[in-house]
TrEMBL record:
<dbReference type="InterPro" id="IPR047865">
    <property type="entry name" value="Ribosomal_uL10_bac_type"/>
</dbReference>
<dbReference type="GO" id="GO:0070180">
    <property type="term" value="F:large ribosomal subunit rRNA binding"/>
</dbReference>
<dbReference type="Pfam" id="PF00466">
    <property type="entry name" value="Ribosomal_L10"/>
</dbReference>
<dbReference type="InterPro" id="IPR002363">
    <property type="entry name" value="Ribosomal_uL10_CS_bac"/>
</dbReference>
<dbReference type="GO" id="GO:0015934">
    <property type="term" value="C:large ribosomal subunit"/>
</dbReference>
<comment type="subunit">
    <text>Part of the ribosomal stalk of the 50S ribosomal subunit. The N-terminus interacts with L11 and the large rRNA to form the base of the stalk. The C-terminus forms an elongated spine to which L12 dimers bind in a sequential fashion forming a multimeric L10(L12)X complex.</text>
</comment>
<dbReference type="GO" id="GO:0003735">
    <property type="term" value="F:structural constituent of ribosome"/>
</dbReference>
<dbReference type="InterPro" id="IPR022973">
    <property type="entry name" value="Ribosomal_uL10_bac"/>
</dbReference>
<keyword id="KW-0689">Ribosomal protein</keyword>
<dbReference type="InterPro" id="IPR001790">
    <property type="entry name" value="Ribosomal_uL10"/>
</dbReference>
<protein>
    <recommendedName>
        <fullName>Large ribosomal subunit protein uL10</fullName>
    </recommendedName>
</protein>
<dbReference type="InterPro" id="IPR043141">
    <property type="entry name" value="Ribosomal_uL10-like_sf"/>
</dbReference>
<keyword id="KW-0694">RNA-binding</keyword>
<comment type="function">
    <text>Forms part of the ribosomal stalk, playing a central role in the interaction of the ribosome with GTP-bound translation factors.</text>
</comment>
<keyword id="KW-0687">Ribonucleoprotein</keyword>
<keyword id="KW-0699">rRNA-binding</keyword>
<comment type="similarity">
    <text>Belongs to the universal ribosomal protein uL10 family.</text>
</comment>
Length: 174
């Protein structure tokens, strides 16, 4: 590869590292082109799966300020640059790796923190961002509904008390 081509490849990889919430490094040795295409489509819009040379990836990661990947850049390496939901992308990679044992998750980086393969699997076991947000919204709504019911009950009880007091005064002839 000529020098300008390498510089362009490094610039593209650096841009991907900088624009991604996470990057997951995988070994793809033995996978067919059709399987890689299937993996890319299974990741959808959440991640971009790119095969790159280790030396160029190492240079781009260092230029982007991503450290700790040097030990993982051994053998044929592909990088999944995650731009969307990190949990959903990790689930897609984990599920594809279960169906295709030739894909090996090596590790990665999430918001500057280096992750090993086990941590990425744990990340994949989490519920998606949307589910967690829905649970949080449901909990907040329940608390607000209880507070609204309590505040609505106070004027109602006050009105009932005033009505009872009025009826008692009428009874007493006041």
């Amino acid at each position: 590869m000529a020098r300008p081509d390498k510089a362009t490849a490094v610039a593209e990889l650096k841009s991907e590292f900088e624009g991604s919430a996470a990057a997951v490094l995988t070994e793809y040795r033995g996978l067919t082109v059709a399987q890689l295409k299937e993996l890319r489509s299974s990741l959808g819009g959440n991640a971009k799966f790119a095969v790159a040379k280790n030396t160029l990836t190492k240079i781009a990661a260092n230029q982007a300020g991503v450290n700790g990947l040097d030990d993982l850049l051994v053998g044929p390496t592909a990088v999944a640059f995650v731009k969307g939901d990190v949990v959903e992308a990790a689930k897609g990679l984990r599920d594809f790796a279960k169906a295709n044992p030739l894909l090996v998750i090596k590790g990665g980086v999430l918001e500057g923190k280096t992750l090993n393969a086990t941590e990425i699997t744990k990340l994949a076991d989490l519920e998606s961002r949307e589910v967690l947000l829905a649970k949080l919204a449901g909990a907040l709504k329940a608390k607000q509904s209880a507070a609204a019911a309590m505040f609505a009950a106070l004027p109602t009880q006050m009105a009932q008390l005033a009505d009872a007091l009025r009826a008692k005064r009428e009874e007493a002839g006041e």
